[in-house]
Amino acid sequence: MAIRREQTMSGTEFRAFQATRPDHERWELVGGVALQAGRPTILHNYLAGNLLGLLNKRLDRYAPSLVAIQRLGIDFGASDCKPEPDVAVIDVTYAPHQRFADRAYLLAEVTSEDDEMIVPGTDRKWINVKRELYRAHTHCEAIVVVAQDRIRVELELQTEAGWKSSVLEGTNAELVVPSMGVRFFLDELYASTPLQPRPAA
After folding, report:
1. In this structure, is the dihedral angle defined by the CA atoms of residues 105, 24, 48 and 39, taken in order, positive or negative?
2. Which of 45, 61, 133, 181 has the most neighbouring CB atoms within 10 Å?
3. Which residues face 73 on adjacent strands?
4. Is residue 21 part of a domain?
């Protein structure tokens, strides 16, 4: 479970607070409340790593100006919400000591218990607020939400007509983000997990 600081703070105050915390701690600003994420499951980490590898494999070939990064701080200008997606696709050029990005093209979450918390002052879950923030980001072209309890991915793509949502289920479902040349099957994403175990030797 997340650890919360009861004192509310602005986005600027939150960034100053983050700067005092060790690098291994993961904090998000949720409705003005600073929350430290609980320790993720092994499956959560493995899925995020698989997604990172699959994205970079395709980006290296089809969109070399972009790169996928894990646990990146995102600044979208929302004063009381500062999410930290599990994986984000950003420009390949970034400064050596850069900690945050203000432009992302794909934003991905591996769902966890923390995502189900209600944002203070609302009746909405944190995962749904994050999706809304991601959709509002001018540069975002795709949102990926990966389930831990089954082989299932929710994909949202920015189109000329607006956002198009789809649900991908099962190992044969294919995730495609045409603008980045990203294409892979869910059996690759869930490979070597309890949901898609390696064959016995």
Report:
1. negative
2. 133
3. 100
4. no
